[in-house]
Amino acid sequence: MQNQSPLLQDAWRGNEVTMSNGEREPPAETVWLDDTGSGRADPPSERVLSIENVAKMFGVSKLSLRYYEFRGLIRRIHSLDGVPVFGWADCERLAFIIKCRKAGVKLCDVVTIIDATDDDVSPLGFKTGQENCMALVERLEQRRRVIDEALAELSHVYALLTTKLLGDAESSRRG
Q1: Cβ neighbours, 10 Å, residue 128
Q2: CA gap 91, 74 in Å, rounded
Q3: Which of the two residues, 87 and 138, has the higher pLDDT score?
Q4: Are 17 and 11 in contact (CB under 8 A)?
Q5: Residue 133, CB half-sphere, CA atoms under 13 Å: how many?
Q6: d(CA 103, CA 132)
Q7: Residues 20/58, Cβ–Cβ less than 8 Å
């Protein structure tokens, strides 16, 4: 479990977690289907990682999940009582996809990176994914620098406005 994201580790332990939509979901509402080989019993069918539960948990639409399935990014290869359900690997990938999309990364860029992580990827596919990954890191670092500069400017202007407001309030009390 140490290789899983903190979001998934908290969900596995049954802790309340903040989902991608910023809301806190009750931990008893959804549990993970154990595809780690630990031998845990299957959860009740209403609490497995069905498309409905995963969509709600991650704050995405079922249509988005189906689209990611269509693109081959996630797969419901497990089933419980005939219902296709997601496993750990899909939730890890979904968390990565959502984080990238929130950062403004195009889905086609995410696809090349995810494809490069497949066990049967060609050396060229691996190299392409690695290069795209580094290019995205550089692009996001540049965007972070721009945002940091803007935040610094806004903080400075806020301080000036606050000083002026306090100075005007002091002048009006004297006058």
Answers
A1: 16
A2: 8
A3: 138
A4: yes
A5: 13
A6: 15
A7: yes
Residue 169 is predicted with a pLDDT of 73
Q: Is the pTM of this model over 0.90?
A: no
Mean pLDDT of 20-39: 47
Q: For residue 115, give every residue at least 6 positions away whose Cβ sits within 8 Å of its Cβ, in sequence order, or none.
A: 121, 125, 129
Q: Cα torsion at 43, 47, 52, 58 (round to 10°)?
A: -100
Class of domain 1-102: mainly alpha
- Output the six-digit token pair for 18: 């903040």
pLDDT at residue number 37: 53
- For residue 68, give Cα distances in angstroms to 74, 76, 114, 123, 170: 6, 11, 12, 24, 59
Chain segment 63-98, per-residue pLDDT in tens: 999 999 999 888 888 877 777 888 878 888 999 999
| For the chain, domain boundaries | 1-102, 104-175
Residue partners of 89: CB distance under 8 A and separation at least 6 = 35
Which sign does the torsion angle of CA 114, 109, 55, 51 carry?
negative
